């Protein structure tokens, strides 16, 4: 059972999500805007937050940023807007996933389960430290840390997931479908530009070491060192 906070100024949307979440055995709390969400998170702990972007009082991006100052709770963003800028901005803030309205409640639940599976699995590896050094790029799987030329680099959760997957499968041609299925943890359907957006962000974070991520036209990507 997960403790879920649903934040949306549309009562109908909150009710639909709550209905499906409760049916699957989860506990659901609600907030009608970003300001209320920040206040609720100060008083309670949640396993995951489902947050709309466009809301009165305080928008979803600002609310997420405020909540992240004190608590590291996974966030799944909802939006009626599907512009790439919105996605990039959200992922740079460290959100875990992004769903465009109108959405399938069943797909939403699958995404929630995938996010929680990844979150609960973090740090459960064996105590043996696993670190890979590639020139000036250091990837610490055990500590979930990345260093570029000795300096620690902060990335969004999905950037870490993608980079770790690439490094573990370096030298292998990875199709877009395999990347989405293995990294996102569910049978993805929807806007396939999500992968490209994350690749773009990851390349930006890696700087000169973005050269390792090679685009295979018509296929996908390969991490070459």
Largest sheet: 5 strands, parallel
Task: Return the CATH topology of the largest domain.
Answer: Rossmann fold
- Rg is 18 Å
- Classify the helix fraction into a percent range: 40-55%
Distance between the termini: 42 Å
CATH homologous superfamily designation of the largest domain: Response regulator
What do the pLDDT scores average to? Answer: 86
Per CATH, the class of the largest domain reads Alpha Beta
In terms of per-residue confidence, which ranges show pLDDT below 50 for 5 or more consecutive residues?
122-127
Note the quaternary state here. Answer: single chain
SS-based class: alpha/beta
N-to-C SSE series?
EHEHEHEHEHEEEEHEHHEE
Query: What is the strand arrangement across the widest sheet?
Result: 2-1-3-4-5
- Which CATH architecture of the largest domain would you pick? 3-Layer(aba) Sandwich
Enumerate how many helices there are, as a single number. Answer: 8
The total number of structural domains is 2
* Mass-distribution shape: globular
Count the strands?
A: 12
**In what range is the share of β-strand residues?**
15-25%
Describe the protein in words:
This protein is globular. The chain contains eight helices and twelve strands. The protein has 225 residues and is of the alpha/beta class. It folds into two domains: 3-121, 3-Layer(aba) Sandwich (Rossmann fold); 131-223, Winged helix-like DNA-binding domain superfamily/Winged helix DNA-binding domain (Arc Repressor Mutant, subunit A). Residues 129-225 bind DNA. Residues 3-116 form the Response regulatory domain.
């Amino acid at each position: 059972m997960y403790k879920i906070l649903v934040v949306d100024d549309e009562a109908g949307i909150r009710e639909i999500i709550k209905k499906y979440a409760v049916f699957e055995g989860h506990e659901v709390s609600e907030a009608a805007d970003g300001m209320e969400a920040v206040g609720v998170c100060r008083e309670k702990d949640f396993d995951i937050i489902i947050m709309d972007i466009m809301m009165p009082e305080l928008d979803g991006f600002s609310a997420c940023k405020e909540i992240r100052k004190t608590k590291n709770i996974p966030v799944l963003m909802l939006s009626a807007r599907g512009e790439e800028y919105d996605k990039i901005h959200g992922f740079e803030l460290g959100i875990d996933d992004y769903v465009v309205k109108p959405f399938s409640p069943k797909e939403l639940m699958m995404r929630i389960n995938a996010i929680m599976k990844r979150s609960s699995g973090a740090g459960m590896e064996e105590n043996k430290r696993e670190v890979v050094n590639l020139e000036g790029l250091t990837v610490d799987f055990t500590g979930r840390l990345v260093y570029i030329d000795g300096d620690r680099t902060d990335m969004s959760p999905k950037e870490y997931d993608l980079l770790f997957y690439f490094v573990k499968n370096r030298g292998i041609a990875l199709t877009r479908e395999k990347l989405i299925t293995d990294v996102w943890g569910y049978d993805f359907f929807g806007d396939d530009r999500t992968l490209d957006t994350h690749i773009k962000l990851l390349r930006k974070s890696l700087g000169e070491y973005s050269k390792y991520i090679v685009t295979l036209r018509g296929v996908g990507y390969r991490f070459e060192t």
